[in-house]
Design goal:
The structure is a single chain. The protein has 201 residues and is of the alpha+beta class. The protein has one domain: Cytochrome P450 (Cytochrome p450), CATH 1.10.630.10. The strands form 3 sheets. It has a two-stranded antiparallel ribbon. A two-stranded antiparallel ribbon has the order 2-3. Keywords: Iron, Metal-binding, Monooxygenase, Oxidoreductase. It comes from Bimuria novae-zelandiae CBS 107.79.
Length: 201
């Protein structure tokens, strides 16, 4: 166990959390955070791609949907599968797991001179957020009030080029009493750092 019950995961724990990093990276791959056709680029000079001539002034889009379904890298590309970043049998696996998987050079954040300069921030922040949620809660499907059985998870997405999931129901249950106390303690500590909260008091 990387983190016990007496503290929340922090940025210092990230090297020891490859599974959490894999969950984050696979989520971004499976449902890209940018439009499926990427951000348009305009060629400033004539170019060739394999046998195709592309004249200067052409507007190009990166087909992220196709890139993240490339069977060479993602044999089961339509499946959400964090294990692809953790198992040596997958072409996406890299070592050491104290560093990989990460989002550096990942297509979702661009490439070449147009790559996102804040990939490191984006890499670290969701990882800690997911780690803290997993540390604190058992996250389960909602219960049907009539049958008392779990309802199937049916996540729908906005009908836009850059879709985000529509609201859906889930149950968040604190894992144990000790973690519940730790969450309350951390909230109180953070409240004291918030100038607006202090002013209200």
């Amino acid at each position: 166990m990387v983190v016990g019950k007496d503290r929340l995961p922090t940025f210092k724990d990230i090297p020891q959390l490859p599974t959490v990093r894999a969950v984050v990276k696979e989520g971004i791959r499976h449902r890209s955070i940018v439009a499926e056709l990427g951000i348009a680029r305009k060629l400033d000079q004539d170019d060739w791609h394999e046998e195709y001539f592309i004249p200067k002034g052409t507007i190009l889009h990166s087909n992220f949907s196709a890139i993240f379904s490339d069977r060479t890298l993602y044999p089961d590309g339509s499946v959400y599968n964090p294990a692809r970043w953790l198992g040596p049998s997958y072409p996406t696996y890299r070592e050491p797991l104290s560093i990989y998987p990460n989002l550096t050079g990942f297509t979702s954040f661009g490439y070449g001179r147009r790559a996102c300069p804040r990939t490191n921030f984006t890499d670290r922040t969701p990882t800690v957020m997911v780690a803290r949620l997993a540390w604190a809660f058992n996250i389960k499907k909602q219960i049907d009030p009539v049958t008392r059985k779990e309802l199937p998870l049916n996540i729908k997405y906005e009908p836009t080029p850059n879709p985000k999931p529509e609201p859906f129901s889930a149950r968040f249950e604190v894992r144990d009493e000790q973690r519940a106390k730790m969450i309350t303690k951390e909230k109180e500590k953070e409240d004291l750092k918030d100038p607006l909260f202090v002013e209200k008091r």
